[in-house]
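Team,

Forwarding the record for the chain on the shared tracking sheet. I've put the sequence and predicted structure together so nobody has to dig through attachments.
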Amino acid sequence: MNGSASGTEPRSVPGMSRSDERDVVRRGYDALSYHYRSDDADDGQYAPWLAGRDEAGFGPSFGGR
């Protein structure tokens, strides 16, 4: 999606590419989500999904759990 609801271009950070900006936002969301998750919580109902994600290469080394 290009632009905002008002039809103007979104602001960008000087010197950063769009993918770098997206990465910063993604890492921020990830960090915030871990704040709300107990460190000792098990995978519970998400275990099969997490296993599939890990097998697909999107596990801990990709910034996952």
